[in-house]
Specification:
The complex is a heterodimer of chains A (about 290) and B (about 300). Chain A has about 290 residues and is mainly α. Chain A has two domains: about 40 residues; about 230 residues, MetI-like (MetI-like fold, Orthogonal Bundle), CATH 1.10.3720. In chain A, about 75% of the residues lie in helices and about 0% in strands. In chain A, helix 3 crosses helix 9 and helix 6 runs antiparallel to helix 9. Chain A starts with a helix and ends with a helix. Chain B has about 300 residues and is mainly alpha-helical. Chain B folds into two domains: about 45 residues; about 220 residues, MetI-like fold. In chain B, helix 6 crosses helix 7, helix 7 packs across helix 9 and helix 9 runs antiparallel to helix 12. Chain B is flat. The mean pLDDT of chain B is about 90. Classes of the chains: A mainly alpha (about 290), B mainly alpha (about 300).
Chain lengths: ~290, ~300
């Protein structure tokens, strides 16, 4: 009996240790192939060259165009999702009637459940042609429409996590503010939002991190032309799209072209890991603050 | 706004006391908030409307049972949805037992140990890793090092690693909701730890766990990027017959069709999206139903 209990416990432990091996595996694979990559390409070229053309005969390995591509789409998504998400969070937590809340929240959750390839289709087939009527110079592939659609995709993340943060603000703060004669608007924006600030920042950082790692929307609608620009109307390429592009092609294994996707993957991994850990740190601080 | 408009507003403001202005501001924000909330809903409606408008006419029995073709009008999604089914079942078989076991260990056994703490932080980090990175891991580890190639098994293993953090976290949440008195009652009757978990805790938490695993599986079938990276093919004219056969899935088929410039192919994509969204929404619906029923029924 005792033996059986011990065996079961060890088995369960092994299952949870698998997650550690996953992390070790990811980091190991990325480091191994990235080292191979940097044997052939200098780190300085990788970080400072302004062109990314590993698949052409004249190979250049500057990640800056891919970084700006990712930055641009992420920026557009953030500009859409943060003000909208925060307003929705304040509205749902401070203003809305219970029936509206119960009706709208599941719908926003549906937005989060839609597969990203569907959003990509939507950006390319619906949003871009719509914008082309307003901005005739908009190219068929551009950063604008996938950025905006990505903003809609991360909207539920911002709104629901921010709402949780607003909800956690003690009721006494609201009552104190009302007692001083403040309106709901003043209370929400000058008392509640500032005191939920760290929780709201957590939601924003997580949303940004999600946008940086998002692949299918940009792979479908933003194009495959790495270029160093902040013009949202022309085709660009993000880090994630580049990995997809190489995966779809016929690049021989153990070539420098093949290793580029791991170097790009490493960059992507480091950036998102950094952002996620900033958000964990903020969350921890925030929990202590409220106790 | 012109100069005239501005001065007009200034004049108007004089008539109101500050309080009145603030009251208007308050009312205005109420409608603005409602408007913003509706934007999300409207976009969802537009998306669904567009997909139905473009895809519904293309959707018929021949499309669902048809093999892929280079001609849009003859192409079907048979191999794609069979591939999705393979991936779904295999991923469930691999990820569910491991994920639930890990959740059990972290919640019921060494809750406060240093190792559990490290595992916990690690899981939180894994949940934030972009899915395409899991594809790179699957490509090197399963497809190349273990020589499984671009097979169904490679795909399922990769997606299993991807959804493990979700399963573990939701399992732990479900187990947390089981009151401690249930465990104490079981121990008092002389049950061992595992007997308590197996006969009391798991049955009490099963609906919560189910909700979590169904949601994680619905996430897995919508994933495209990691499967493309491990080398899943975009054109597969046959269905996989074993776990080592190559495969394609619905999202990859959709991606393939969307990437083509011809209008007919985007209609195909829309029709395939209807099927994919139906599967996703049905699974989410089941999860919500279970959660709802569970909340109503169980009163400790």
């Amino acid at each position: 009996m005792k033996l059986r209990e011990t065996i079961i416990e060890k088995l369960l432990l092994a299952c949870s240790l698998l997650t550690i091996f996953t992390t070790v595996g990811i980091i190991g694979v990325l480091i191994f192939e990235t080292i191979g990559f940097f044997k052939e390409v200098s780190l300085i070229e990788f970080l400072t060259d302004t062109e990314w053309t590993p698949l052409f005969s004249n190979k250049r390995f500057g990640i800056l165009p891919l970084l700006t591509g990712t930055l641009l789409t992420t920026l557009i998504a953030t500009v859409v999702a943060v003000p909208l998400g925060l307003t929705i969070a304040v509205y749902l937590s401070e203003y809305s009637h219970k029936t509206v809340r119960n009706l709208v929240k599941p719908m926003l959750e549906v937005l989060a459940a839609v597969p990203t390839v569907v959003y990509g289709y939507f950006a390319l087939v619906f949003v871009t042609p719509m914008f082309q009527k307003i901005i005739p110079s908009l190219a068929g592939f551009n950063a604008l429409s996938p950025g905006i659609v990505m903003g809609i995709m991360i909207l539920p993340l911002v709104s629901s996590l921010s709402e949780d943060a607003l909800y956690a603000v003690p009721k006494s703060l609201r009552e104190g503010s009302f007692a001083l004669g403040a309106t709901k608007f003043q209370t929400s924006w000058k008392v509640i939002v500032p005191s939920a600030f760290s929780g709201i920042s957590v939601s924003i950082i997580l949303a940004i991190s999600r946008a940086i790692g998002e692949t299918m929307i940009v792979a479908i609608a933003a194009g495959q032309q790495p270029r160093l620009t902040f013009d949202p109307t022309v085709p660009i390429e993000t880090m994630t799209t580049y990995i997809v592009q190489v995966s779809l092609g016929d690049v021989p294994h153990d070539s420098v072209e093949y290793r580029t996707i791991f170097a790009v993957g490493m960059t992507l991994f480091v950036v998102t890991l950094l952002l996620n850990n900033i958000s964990f740190w903020l969350k921890k601080k925030f929990q202590k603050h409220h106790r | 706004m012109g100069k005239k408009g501005k001065s007009k507003i200034k004049k108007r403001l004089k008539y109101f006391s500050n309080t009145r202005v603030y009251e208007y501001q308050d009312q205005a924000f109420k409608y603005f908030g409602l408007f913003c909330t509706l934007i999300g809903v409207v976009v969802l409606m537009l998306l669904l409307g567009d997909v139905l408008y473009r895809g519904l006419s293309r959707l018929d029995w021949d499309f669902i049972m048809g093999l892929p073709s280079r001609r849009a009008a003859r192409a079907g999604i048979f191999t794609a949805w069979v591939g999705t089914l393979w991936i779904m079942v295999l991923t469930a078989v691999i990820a569910f037992p491991i994920g639930i076991s890990a959740g059990l260990y972290l919640e019921e056994y060494n809750k406060r140990s240093r190792l559990s703490n490290i595992i916990e932080i690690n899981i939180a980090n894994l949940a934030g890793v972009p899915s395409i990175i899991y594809g790179l891991l699957g490509l090197e580890l399963f497809a190349r090092a273990l020589r499984l190639g671009e097979s169904v098994l490679t795909g399922a293993l990769t997606l299993s690693l991807l959804i493990l953090p979700i399963i573990i976290v939701s399992t732990r949440e479900a187990l947390k909701a089981v009151p401690y008195s249930i465990r104490e009652g079981s121990y008092a009757l002389g049950a061992s730890k595992w007997q308590t978990i197996w006969f009391q805790v798991l049955p009490a938490g099963v609906s919560g766990i189910f909700t979590g695993v169904i949601l994680s599986l619905s996430r897995a079938i919508g994933e495209t990027a990691p499967l493309i990276v491990i080398g899943a093919l975009t054109f597969v004219p046959f269905v996989p017959e074993g776990v080592l056969d190559s495969f394609t899935v619905l999202p990859i088929q959709i991606f393939n069709w969307v990437s083509r410039p011809q209008k007919e192919f985007s209609e195909n994509a829309a029709a395939a999206i209807i099927i994919l969204l139906s599967i996703t929404f049905i699974m989410n619906g089941i999860a919500v139903y279970i959660r709802h029923k569970w909340q109503k029924k169980v009163k400790w």
